[in-house]
Design goal:
Structural class: mainly alpha
Distance between the termini: 25 Å
Oligomer: single chain
Shape: globular
Radius of gyration: 20 Å
Strand order of the largest sheet: 2-1-3
Largest sheet: 3 strands, antiparallel
Organism: Seminavis robusta
Low-confidence stretches: 81-86, 93-101
Number of helices: 15
Protein name: ADP-ribosylglycohydrolase
Pfam families: ADP_ribosyl_GH (PF03747)
CATH class: Mainly Alpha
Mean pLDDT: 93
Number of domains: 1
Number of strands: 3
InterPro entries: ADP-ribosylglycohydrolase, Ribosyl_crysJ1, Ribosyl_crysJ1_sf
Helix content: 40-55%
C-alpha cells in the first residue's frame, strides 16, 4: 500500500477539499440529463442536440428505453406481482380486499413523496425528470445530509448520526426533488416500514443492484472528512466501510470502499500527481484488475456494476488528472463523462472528487460552481464542512 509521507499545509488541504466537493456535485448534476443513456453519444445528441451536453442542462421528461416503469416501488430491482401490483398496508399486503388499514407504497408515500406517478408502468419517464438545470440527484443530496452530520459531530463521521439523519431526510416530504431512488433505499425503507426492523437492521441486498458504483458516493465524503484530519490509513479505511454499511448490506462494497478510500486520501494529501498515480495503480491491483489504468484508453460507457465501472473510472482519472488547469481538466472530464451515458452520474461525482482535489478550488472554472442549482446553499455547506474537519 502506498502511504502519504508528508503532510501538506492546511491551506493546500482546504483548497483540495473545496475543489473535491464542488467537482463532486458538478459531476453529478452535469450527468443527470444523460443518466442510463445506453445508446451512447448518439442517443445524447437525439435528446440534447448535435453537441450533446455542454453545460448544466435540465433532464428531459421522457426517455426512450427507460426502465423506471419496471422498477419496484416497494423494494429492490424490478417490479413483481407481489410487490408493485398494488399498495401495501402498514399491517400487510393490500391484496386482502377486507383490509381497511392505511395503504402505502414506499415510492410516493414513504420516500420520494409524490413521485410515484412517474414510475407508472405505462409511461417511459426519465429517471431524473423532475430535476431542474444544475440540480443534484438523490445520492448527491444524501451526500449533503452526510456532510451536515459530520459538521454536527465536530468534523467526524458517526454512523448512528448519519443513519438517523438519512431516515429523517428521506421520509420528509419535499426534502429533495429527484424522481428516482435506487434499490438500496427502496429495500431499506421496505424493511423499516413493512418488516418493522430497526434502522440498523434495514440495509439489504438484492444480489444485483447494490454492489454498485453509486455505493461509493457516501464513503467518498466520509473519507474526505477523515483523511483531512487523520494520517492513519487504517482509520480512513474503517470509516469508508462503516459509511457504506449504513445504507447497504454488502461485504463487496465495504471492501471496495476501503480500496477506494486509499485513492481519495492520496488525491487529498499527496504532493504530486505521480504519487497519486502510483496509489491508483496499487488500488487497481487490489481490485484484481487485469490491466493498470491507462491514460490512453477511450472514455467508456459502462453499467453500474463495480467490475465494469471502476476500471473505466480509473482510466478517466489517469487521462484527465495531468490536465490540471481546471477547464481542460476537471470540466472537460465531467462533460465527457456526461456525454458518454450509461451509469455516468455516480461515476461523475467520484471522478470529480479526485480530479477536483488535485486541481484545487482556485483552478476550477467559474461555470462549474455558478451553474449548480443550489449554489448558495452548497457554498455554506462546503465551507462549514471544510472548517469542521480541519479543526481535528
Amino acid at each position: 500500500m502506498t502511504t502519504t509521507t508528508a503532510t501538506p499545509s492546511r491551506s493546500v488541504v482546504e483548497a483540495r477539499l473545496r475543489g473535491a466537493l464542488w467537482s463532486f456535485f458538478s459531476g453529478d448534476a452535469l450527468a443527470a440529463p444523460t443518466h442510463w443513456y445506453y445508446g451512447g453519444f448518439q442517443q445524447v445528441q437525439m435528446d440534447y442536440g448535435p453537441n450533446g451536453i455542454t453545460t448544466y442542462t435540465k433532464p428531459k421528461m421522457e426517455l426512450r428505453g427507460s426502465i423506471l416503469n419496471k422498477s419496484d416501488v416497494n423494494g429492490g430491482g424490478r417490479s413483481s406481482s407481489s410487490s408493485s401490483s398494488g399498495k401495501w398496508s402498514l399491517f400487510g399486503s393490500s391484496s386482502d380486499k377486507n383490509n381497511k388499514k392505511e395503504q402505502i407504497t414506499i415510492i410516493g408515500d414513504v420516500i420520494n413523496h409524490g413521485k410515484k406517478p412517474y414510475w407508472d408502468k405505462h409511461k417511459s419517464i426519465h429517471y431524473h425528470a423532475t430535476l431542474q438545470r444544475g440540480e443534484n440527484t438523490l445520492e448527491a443530496q444524501l451526500a449533503r445530509v452526510l456532510m451536515k452530520t459530520i459538521v454536527q459531530n465536530d468534523g467526524r463521521f458517526n454512523a448512528d448520526a448519519f443513519r438517523d439523519a438519512y431516515v429523517t431526510f428521506l421520509q420528509t416530504p419535499g426534502s429533495h426533488n429527484d424522481t428516482y431512488a435506487s434499490t438500496c433505499h427502496r429495500m431499506f425503507f421496505s424493511n423499516l416500514v413493512f418488516s418493522k426492523l430497526p434502522p440498523e437492521k434495514c440495509p439489504d441486498n438484492d444480489g444485483h443492484n447494490v454492489d454498485t458504483i453509486d455505493g461509493l458516493i457516501l464513503p467518498t465524503i466520509a473519507v474526505l472528512a477523515t483523511a483531512a484530519a487523520s494520517q492513519q490509513p487504517d482509520r480512513v479505511e474503517t470509516v469508508a466501510a462503516q459509511c457504506a454499511a449504513v445504507t447497504r448490506q454488502s461485504a463487496v462494497l465495504e471492501q471496495s470502499s476501503r480500496i477506494w478510500s486509499r485513492l481519495v486520501t492520496a488525491s487529498l494529501l499527496e504532493e504530486d500527481d505521480a504519487a497519486v498515480v502510483q496509489q491508483m495503480n496499487d488500488c487497481s491491483q487490489s481490485w484484481g484488475h487485469r490491466r493498470p489504468p491507462s491514460a490512453n484508453a477511450p472514455d467508456q460507457m459502462t453499467a453500474c456494476y463495480l467490475s465494469q465501472s471502476v476500471p473505466a473510472l480509473l482510466n478517466m482519472i489517469a487521462k484527465y488528472m495531468p490536465k490540471n488547469d481546471g477547464r481542460t481538466g476537471v470540466w472537460n472530464a465531467l462533460l465527457s463523462n456526461a456525454n458518454i451515458g450509461g451509469e455516468n452520474v455516480h461515476r461523475g461525482s467520484i471522478l470529480g472528487a479526485v480530479l477536483g482535489a488535485r486541481a484545487t478550488y482556485d483552478n476550477l472554472p467559474t461555470e462549474l460552481v455558478q451553474g449548480l442549482h443550489d449554489k448558495e446553499q452548497l457554498e455554506r455547506e462546503i465551507e462549514d464542512f471544510v472548517q469542521a474537519v480541519m479543526k481535528n
